[in-house]
């Protein structure tokens, strides 16, 4: 094997990856959120959750204070 053939054989072959995915052995790249992005995402989800809980609590409180009832008052 010459040096050029060795260099070509050592390089990754994109056709090999396509053939592997066709045969069922799929190669997946590493996907994920790491570091400060993950922390910000968790903070944003927590903030949305707290906002939803406060909104629901205030809605229930307003309904109780304003004495809203599902029963219609009788007209005299």
Automatic annotation (TrEMBL):
UniProt keyword terms in alphabetical order: Cell membrane, Cytoplasm, Cytoskeleton, Disulfide bond, Glycoprotein, Membrane, Signal-anchor, Transmembrane, Transmembrane helix
Keyword Transcription listed: no
GO biological process per UniProt: cardiac muscle tissue development; heart contraction
Protein name per Swiss-Prot or TrEMBL: Zeta-sarcoglycan
Source organism per UniProt: Oryzias sinensis (Chinese medaka)
Subcellular localization: Cell membrane, Sarcolemma; Cytoplasm, Cytoskeleton
TM region(s), chain numbering: 41-63
Entry-linked InterPro entries: Sarcoglycan, Sarcoglycan_gamma/delta/zeta
Keyword set includes Cell membrane: yes
């Amino acid at each position: 094997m010459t040096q050029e053939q060795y260099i070509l054989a050592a390089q990754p072959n994109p056709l090999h990856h396509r053939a592997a995915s066709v045969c069922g052995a799929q190669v997946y790249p590493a996907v994920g959120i790491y570091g400060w992005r993950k922390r910000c995402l968790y903070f944003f989800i927590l903030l949305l959750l707290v906002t939803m809980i406060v909104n629901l609590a205030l809605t229930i409180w307003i309904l109780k204070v304003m004495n809203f009832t599902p029963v219609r008052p009788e007209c005299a």
